Structure formats: structure tokens, C-alpha cells
Amino acid sequence: MRFEQEPAHHHGKPGRTAIVLVNLGTPDAPTAAAVRPYLKEFLSDPRVVEIPKAVWWFILNGAILPFRSKKSAHKYASIWTPEGSPLLVHTMRQATLLRGALGERGHQVEVVAAMRYGNPSLPSVLDKLRADGCQRLLVLPAYPQYSGTTTASTFDAVFSHYARVRNVPELRLVRNYHDDAGYIEALRQSVKKHWDKHGRPERLVMSFHGVPKRTLMLGDPYHCECHKTARLLATALGLSQQEYLVTFQSRFGKAEWLQPYTAPTLQKLAKEGLKRVDVMCPGFTSDCLETLEEIDMEVRSDFLTAGGAEYRYIPCLNENPAWIAALASISERHMQGWPTDADPVQRAARVQDAAIGRERALALGARD
Ligand SMILES: C=CC1=C(C)c2cc3[nH]c(cc4nc(cc5[nH]c(cc1n2)c(C)c5CCC(=O)O)C(CCC(=O)O)=C4C)c(C)c3C=C
Ligand SMILES: [Fe+2]
Ligand SMILES: [Fe+2]
């Protein structure tokens, strides 16, 4: 059947509103056997690797997957937590906290997390929402800066899922929030708190995930949005241009990516005599392999080996309450006009849920 059977329709039952918080995804376990299918799904996405399909198939299956799966599994093992992959754990907690925060503001909406690659898969989450009677859906990618490689890929997956659905919900998409006042304020508070505890560095490095330089030349606004985020944060912190730096990390393959690259830049700074640096990753809303292993371990070691003395990593926003409040405001803005009012009894229950959710997140190590 081209279009699937819909759940039974009930007259008079109000349609529900939901938000799906979509992050990149992560393997199910820190093993080569689990990393391989995740990498295969991720790296087979034409939004991520723009090489003709047949050529890429041979490179991916012959040269990349057999080696990278093993190497990456080792890295994942170094950051894995008892609850699972940090990226998944943080994103799930953010969804729970966002549901509570919106409940406190009087909105009765479901908030669920989904992964673009791996599990819980976006199609499985969207199917579950449909079965639960969701008629309005806000797609909220976990990426503040728009990129074709991430944001548009998320939208592709949503569209291709609904291309086989008969009763499609009303859809709204959050394209970006790189300059959102609440997001910048959450970043500012997190840096300020870190400085109150450890003092100020000689330089604040803001490292963003890289993308091939070719995508910038072809019109992807990601590079500009990263720089705008950095500029707004630097202004909020009262930093001069000499006191901060924007770099790009996680280069993949041999082609040129956005520059300057994070690791060589920090090595160069150390060799030039810079002793004390703080590094943060404003483009990642949850700590993950790229921040915990690459930035907090590999790049730290590069900087110290090259002669640096103090390297401090400022964690991602994760379950930071100012960040959850920013997510709630971004969601409210995009849900305008949708009937999301909770009745008073349900509203009281949601306020209680929010408090319990916050306590749980704090007990699990959230930073406030
Ligand atoms: C191959 C090209 C890649 C592009 C383009 C790319 C863009 C991109 N990625 C993120 C965010 C994340 N990437 C993560 C891991 C990761 N990224 C790539 C490759 C590209 N990313 C790979 C192969 C991997 C897997 C790990 C590895 O083998 O090195 C993650 C972390 C996932 C986790 O499980 O913790 C995130 C998050 C952005 C924002 C972005 C473009 C803007
Ligand atoms: Fe990536
Ligand atoms: Fe630019």
C-alpha cells in the first residue's frame, strides 16, 4: 500500500500538538558492530557527502567503514556513560525539561526527542506521534546554525516520512536560532559562571563543527551564522576582537573545510606563547563525541604538548535552565496561533511534572 492505514478517527477528539527535538544521532553502543550501521546511514546521506553515489559507495564500503567503525568505537568508549551516549542522554533530558517548561507556561504539548541517524529514529517517533493523534507538529532541530548538511537533512527526513502518510499533520519547521536572544544569553551565563569559578583566560576559542568549504561557496549560510553567534556572544561578554577566536573542528576527508581548523590553531597559539585558553563549542547544544573526546581530550593534549599551560573546556548548554527557557521561548514563537492551552487541572499537573523533571535532571548531573 502506497499510503499507510491511519489510526481510527474519533469525532470531537481534539488534535494534539507536539514538538520533535531532532539531534544528529549516535550509535547504540560504543562497539565497532554498532558504530558501523550508524556511520553507514549517516555517511550515505547525500546532504552530508556530496560525491556521486556510485563512486562514494565503493569508497564508503571499501575504505571508510571497515577502519573508521573500529577507530570511532574506541573514541565512543572513552566518553560513554552508564546511561548511554552523552548526545542521546542530554537530548532526551532536554525534551523532558522543555515539555515541563512549556507546561509551566500553560502549553499542553508533547515534546519528544528523535535522532536523524540511529535511534530513536525520526520515522519511528513520527509514527508514534501519529498513532497518538498529533495533528500539529513543530520540528525543532538541535542545531542553532542552519546548514544543508544537518538542518536541511532533518527536513528531508521529515518530508520523506510524510510522503507515505495519508493524514499529514500541520507542519512547522525551525530553520535556525543562531542569533536568538535567549540562546546567546544562555551561552553568556554559562561562560560567566565558568569565569566566576576559574578566572578569565587570555583567549576564548569558540569552536564550531566544520563543513566542506565548497558548501560555503555554493551558498550554505552556516559559516556566516557561526560567525554571527560568536560576534553576539563576544559582545554580550564584553570581549574585544583580540580576546576571542572562531575555529572549525572535526574535518573529515582530504578536501578543504572551513578554516581556521581548531587543533592546528591551538597548537600555533601555544607555540606563540599563549598559556591560558578557554574552549567552548556554541554550535553543539549537547555534549557529544565531538566535544568530549575531540575538544576536551585530543585538542587539550595538542595545546599542552605544544607549550600551553592551562586549557579549560566550557561544557555545552545541555540541561542548563537558561537554555531550556530559551528553547521554550523559541518553541512558543513558532507555535503562535496553535491551540496549546492546557485546562487548569492539566496545567497544575504539568507544573508539578516540570518540578519533578528538573529535580531528576539535577540529580543526574545537570549544571544549573
Ligand atoms: C562527513 C562529513 C560530515 C559533515 C559534513 C558533518 C557535519 C556536521 N556534523 C555536526 C554534528 C555532529 N557530528 C558528529 C559526529 C560525526 N560527524 C561526522 C562527519 C560529518 N559531520 C562523522 C563521521 C561523525 C561520527 C564520529 C566519527 O566517526 O568521527 C556529532 C557527534 C555524534 C555523537 O554520537 O556524539 C555531532 C553532534 C554538525 C553540527 C555538522 C554541520 C554543521
Ligand atoms: Fe559531524
Ligand atoms: Fe561567512
Automatic annotation (TrEMBL):
The keyword Transferase does not apply. It comes from the Bacteria. InterPro entries: Ferrochelatase (IPR001015), Ferrochelatase_C (IPR033644), Ferrochelatase_N (IPR033659). Gene3D superfamilies: 3.40.50.1400. Fe(2+) binds at residues 209, 290. It catalyses: heme b + 2 H(+) = protoporphyrin IX + Fe(2+); Fe-coproporphyrin III + 2 H(+) = coproporphyrin III + Fe(2+). It is found in: Cytoplasm. Its main location: cytoplasm. Its EC number is 4.98.1.1. Keywords: Cytoplasm, Heme biosynthesis, Iron, Lyase, Metal-binding, Porphyrin biosynthesis. Pathway: Porphyrin-containing compound metabolism; protoheme biosynthesis; protoheme from protoporphyrin-IX: step 1/1. CDD domains: Ferrochelatase_C, Ferrochelatase_N. Catalyzes the ferrous insertion into protoporphyrin IX. Belongs to the ferrochelatase family. NCBIfam families: hemH. This is Ferrochelatase. It comes from Noviherbaspirillum suwonense. The lineage of its organism: Bacteria, Pseudomonadati, Pseudomonadota, Betaproteobacteria, Burkholderiales. The gene is hemH.
